[in-house]
Amino acid sequence: MTTLDATDARLLLELSRSPRATGVELANRLSLSRNTVQSRLARWEGAGVLAGFDRLVDPRALGYPLAAFVATRVDQHRLDDVVAALTGIPEVVEVYGMTGLTDLSVKVVATDADDLYRLAERILEIPGVERTNMALVMRELVGPRTAPLLERAAGR
Question: Does residue 56 register a pLDDT over 80?
């Protein structure tokens, strides 16, 4: 993973404010050369610093108004297989490896309560999944964000 400096943070903040801005526009706004902007953008792409476009699409706009976190206990010898199986379920939008009593935190989206029930069954059917506990998301209070971290890194 690439470590970002203050100039990187300033550029990323401006890009988050104006995602469609061209390299020339970003360079002008930040008093940087176009080459500096282009090389940093290319470096971030190669290093995986910038998340994919799909993270910007709200699942509700695709007909998935429900979200839940599924705390999943897994046979550690089958962890890779479980993760591969979860990746094959389109409604699984995030999976995190955890410490403590939960091995994986799996975020799923669903069309309705019956669809959520179907997903819970599908996850439990995966060989290596030992136990699950589902918690329905009632409201997103603080969404995914990095702007406060970028502000700090930019020295603001």
Answer: no
Residue pair 26/37 in contact by the 8 Å Cβ criterion: yes
The four Cα atoms 141, 48, 36, 28 give a dihedral, to 10 degrees, of: -30
Three-state secondary structure call for residue 130: strand
CA distance 131 to 28: 54
Residue with tokens 């094959």: 88
Residue 16: the pLDDT is 87
CB under 8 Å to 133, separation ≥6 — which residues?
70, 71, 102
Helix (H, G, I), strand (E, B) or coil at 103: coil
In sequence order, the β-bridge partners of residue 133 are 71
Helical axes 23-30 vs 34-47, angle rounded to 10°: 120
